[in-house]
């Protein structure tokens, strides 16, 4: 069964850091663009960052530029999202997803994980 699994979420104080991981099972991530999306309580899902299959191209939402870094290790079939200087507005469920396009449009993403909760609070 092909699936994506997120991990690394948790509770952190404002200004803190977390690193999220997205691992694939049942298929090879090498061929896919991988994106991170998040959904805050009571809000719609928004694109956070995306990385091309080779890792040479990335996109970030304006709200996370300079604070978040996306990377991938195809040998480990894993994509990482390093999140620094976290703020309460970063709170939400974070999802990784697979696509063929380097865009932050969730409608272009076909495979989705179940999500991991990130909470930023003092």
Helix and strand content put the structural class at mainly beta
**What's the rounded overall pLDDT mean?**
95
- Series of secondary-structure elements, N-terminal to C-terminal: EEEEEEEEEEE
Question: How much helical structure, as a percent, in the residues?
Answer: under 10%
Which residues form runs of ≥5 with pLDDT under 50? none
Q: What distance lies between the first and last C-alpha atoms, to the nearest angstrom?
A: 39 Å
Tell me the radius of gyration. Answer: 13 Å
Principal-axis shape: globular
Characterize the biggest β-sheet.
7 strands, mixed
Describe the 3D structure.
With 122 residues, the chain is an all-beta fold. The protein is 0% helix and 51% strand. Strands 2, 4, 5, 6, 9, 10 and 11 form a 7-stranded mixed beta sheet that branches. A hairpin with a 6-residue loop joins β5 and β6. It is globular and about 40 Å long. The model has no long low-confidence stretch (mean pLDDT 95).
């Amino acid at each position: 069964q092909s699936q994506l699994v997120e991990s690394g979420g948790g509770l952190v104080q404002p200004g803190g850091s977390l690193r999220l991981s997205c691992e694939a099972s049942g298929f090879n991530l090498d061929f896919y663009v991988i994106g991170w999306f998040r959904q805050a309580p009571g809000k719609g899902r928004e694109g956070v960052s995306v990385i091309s299959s080779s890792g040479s191209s990335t996109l970030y939402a304006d709200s996370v530029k300079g604070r978040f870094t996306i990377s991938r290790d195809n040998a480990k079939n894993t994509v990482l999202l390093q999140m620094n200087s976290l703020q309460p507005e970063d709170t939400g469920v974070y999802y990784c997803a697979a696509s063929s396009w380097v865009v932050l449009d969730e409608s272009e993403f076909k495979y989705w994980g179940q999500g991991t909760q990130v909470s930023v609070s003092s």
